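Here comes a specimen:
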Amino acid sequence: MTTLVLETEPLAALIKITDKTLTVDLVDGRSLIIPLTWYPRLLHASQKERQKWQLLGEGYAIEWVDLDEHIGIEGLLAGRQSGESPQSFERWLATRNTPLQ
């Protein structure tokens, strides 16, 4: 079995988000396009909430404080979708003050 070893830590430089996709431009020139269906909190957020993100550290992760969503760049490269359970997501939806789109 082969194990993936990253030669450098992948870091985000720029984030673009639409109603359907999250695009992450990396500092090394690559771009990742991820469907928002992978991250239900982003999918159900308002456009204003989606645009309120920040990079953590030098860009190792993206955080949406208001949505309590944190996405690591290594996880995106590995193809990891949200690991949140349906029960946790339903509780989060029930506590939201923002109407769904």
Notes: The domain at 12-95 is CATH 3.30.2020.40 (NE0471 N-terminal domain-like). The longest strand covers residues 12-17. The chain has a mean pLDDT of 91.
